[in-house]
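Input record (one chain):
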Amino acid sequence: MKVSVIGANSYIARNIIYILKQFPQKYKLSLYDKSEEQLDSLDSYKSIDILSRNSVKYIDFSCDIIFMFVGKTGSMQGFAEYDSFININERALLNVLNEYKVQKSNAKIIFPSTRLVYKGRSGKLKENAEKEFKTIYAINKYSCEQYLEMYNRVYNVRYCIFRICLPYGTLIANASSYGTAEFFLSRAKSNENITLYGDGNQRRTLTYIGDLCNILIKGAMSERCINDVYNIGGEDYSLYDMANLIAKLYKVNIELIEWPEVAKLIESGDTVFDSEKLDKIIDYKSKMKFASWISEFN
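The corresponding structure, as predicted from the sequence alone:
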């Protein structure tokens, strides 16, 4: 099976490539990113400018699967850097979709989306739950979801969107997302107290990167997982409970502090995923628990 990975130097991409490389007889990889070299010194790599239509022509669209991992994340940054957020998060995908059409590709595009497209509320969120966009990044991601649906409807582009909440961990050194868990850990390892805004009771779905990547691969390979949006599941934790596990291990305290005004305005609230839709399609049992990861790998 031929697999193209665009954005091969990104966090999820490097971890998913690590898994795919363990099956060289099964997967033939073509890797792409803007840097001159792939961060893990892998072969089958080509430097491309995803914002250049001419450069995108050099991606192998005759493959079976395209993992689209190009993206720029951030909350407040998007307001100041809106041009690069729109370019990297939206124009990049549109360039890929246009070239897919031109080359008459039949590949399935795998696109990672975010919890931030949802309007937060208590209880579990299904894929059709109410949407709300409090940041440039959130509306970027939802726009991309809509672009994929449009190109499928008009040009029969095949796709699969996976909404991801809070991934954590890494399978390879120096490939961390520096997300919520990693932020808590970095403070605790430096013997600093962990700070939380408000009461820290906002809830999230946590997914270990190894499980996340295996789910993405299984979804990509499933013929039943096509032209739709799926939540990726995991464990339900409050930010306080996450921080408390780490604080106890490193013998630091948790400090509850007042919300900065702007941070409160863009806070999403609880985002806990209902992943039943995807779970019915792929047969996968998570291998890692957050508490085990904290105690065994840190």
